[in-house]
């Protein structure tokens, strides 16, 4: 697997030049929590990048659990991605409408979990694209189905049992991507959790601290490295990223990939799962 730090991102300038390349497949990954009364698919139908199709993290998900948008089985991911017209030889570009692109980062991580490393996030997302007055369209894209084979990479996925074992042994660093209020339990989340707070032993690095506040693009590698260092994270030791429900933690994984740490794991269940377990502690 290539660990070239340029692999995880593409610029709006680059994508504008490659929009019509046959091997480029673009996914609009816009997602909103139901409490917002916004819908990513509706926004996609309003305006989207030319040629893009909508990827819904709530639909390409494990439907057997009450936890939100958990990873599906490899066979289900392969089937649904194939129906979106994506094959194993394609270069996938993901974006969304959120500042920073956390839902798109989730999809970037999902593709890597299922063995497809040829995936990149559009730096700055839909916001930067439209501010630059680049083209958008309203007509939904209905791609021809393709064949996609998934190859699950378990090292990129942390489980509750794995996290508990790593915390007992001190074998991994747990980094929480939520804002400080949600991390310390003083601010309620949009999800209804049984408990507030964070996993004991975790350190807090809010995902928004990794994004340029003016442009929504990911910080340069030296600035990213400084933020991880200030949090006390050792890039040479195993790292597990966590958050509320496995979305913003993927921004940490993307940043770490940019820093040459391609194997950082994401705790898929994150606080949504941890807060429900009877045998886990919470810290505030």
TrEMBL record:
Annotated signal peptide: none
All copies of domain Rhodanese, residue ranges: 20-138, 168-283
Keywords attached to this entry: Repeat, Transferase
Cited Pfam families: Rhodanese
Molecular functions per Gene Ontology: thiosulfate-cyanide sulfurtransferase activity
PANTHER family xref list: SULFURTRANSFERASE, THIOSULFATE SULFERTANSFERASE
Annotated protein name in UniProt: Sulfurtransferase
Annotated organism of origin: Bradyrhizobium oligotrophicum S58
